[in-house]
Amino acid sequence: MSTTVIGKSGTWRNWAGNVTARPVREVTPATVEELAAAVRQAAEDDLRVKAVGTGHSFTAAAATEGVLIRPQLLTGIRKIDREAMTVTVAAGTPLKRLNLALAREGLSLTNMGDIMEQTVSGATSTGTHGTGRDSASIAAQIRGLELVTADGSVLTCSATENPDVFAAARVGIGALGIVTAITFAVEPIFLLTAREEPMPFERVLAEFDELHAENEHFEFYWFPHTGNTNTKRNNRSAGPEKPVPQLNSWFEDEFLSNGVFQVANWVGQAVPATIPTIAQISSRALSARTYTDIPYKVFTSPRRVRFVEMEFAVPREAVVDTLRELKAMVDRSNLRVSFPVEVRTAPADDITLSTASGRESAYVAVHMFKGTPYQAYFTAAERIFTAHEGRPHWGKVHTRDTDYFAKVYPRFGEFTALRDRLDPERRFQNDYLRRVLGA
Questions:
Q1: What 3-state DSSP class applies to 347?
Q2: H helices present in 191-310, as ranges
């Protein structure tokens, strides 16, 4: 086996720097066979094993003190089937590379999240999503999966082959096996017109149902300590293509949204009393704009300012109450929050532990600048989210456990029974999975 072993005692850190792990060894397999052999070797050595992508999760979902699998050599498109309109891609492929490769082929995913740094397997396994009235998360666009299970065998699944595994493994949190390839549904590339504009918080809440119903993709950012939001409506367009001019793009997406925002957060971190004033300025910094481009250039944007995040999916009909309660909590507290709150939606899907499983959902995400104490804010927000039976994003900070998940996921027992069958010895166990799924 020509596996690369990297630093026996190296420390792995996630993107936000809030999770670290010291695996016994790291393995970078170049083939599925090498990955399967690494899992069998881990079993012989009685070590746990986890695969890690780009570390964009804020939870310890991928952390291990056993064998850490790095899939960066398992990349690229394996097959494009234009008749079935699917693409099969190796699990370690970054979403960015997938989006670029699909665009070159005149193809696109239907919907995507707002960043594309993650690997396809990391993004889908944790339930990464964008916003959509009719189109759901990235995992909901999966048509087939290949994974290495605890005994080192390779299992393929789809709606017709091992359908029970397919129902669960699309959002498997790394508990059922190591995903090695994913087959996505794709469609001919299309254009989206994005309309971004500021809007008062109260107006967004009053018109939320309307804004959701009238737009294929609606989202907004509310700036705590203000009554201001920035809204974004993305809808399919016949064209013509009219991208954001390069200078405007640099000024708004790089200079204002990343560079100036970074400095503003440093100031806020040093002098928290300035944050409400900074929030007022930030919330008015971006002016209204409309542009038309291919999907990944509209859905995704660079995120260079590091932060820690919590996000819960609440029933869509509960989102307005949830946001009113969140704003009231921030207003009456002495919290100083420099990051906007992001609000998105998703239709119900049929994935066992998807945050939108069986119910139309709205996502509310709270963030804190990296290095700023976030516990008080997140604890207060989590109390509000859980009062509405919110389901936390599997890759974002939360304190929920097995008892809670058994209440908010009707199919929770289905997932844990499948895990008992596929990984009876808990080869893929770690502290995070022990908390959320039980021992």
A1: coil
A2: 201-206, 208-214, 246-249, 261-270, 275-285, 295-299
Contact (Cβ atoms closer than 8 angstroms) between residue 361 and residue 313: yes
- Dump pLDDT digits (tens) for 324-379: 999 999 999 999 999 999 999 999 999 999 999 999 999 999 999 999 999 999 99
Say if pTM beats, i.e. exceeds, 0.85.
Answer: yes
CA 274 remoteness from chain centre: 31
Write 42-48 long-range contacts (CB < 8 A, 24+). 42/66, 42/67, 42/427, 43/150, 43/151, 43/152, 43/425, 43/427, 48/426, 48/427, 48/428, 48/429, 48/430
In angstroms, rounded to a whole number, what is the distance separating the alpha carbons of residues 293 and 167? Answer: 33
Top pLDDT among 278 and 29 is at 29
> In three state form, how does the secondary structure of 284-334 look?
HHCCCEEEEECHHHHHCCCCCCCEEEEEEEEEHHHHHHHHHHHHHHHHHCC
Where residue 249 falls among pLDDT bands split at 50, 70, 90?
low
Q: Which two tokens stand for residue 57?
A: 């999760």
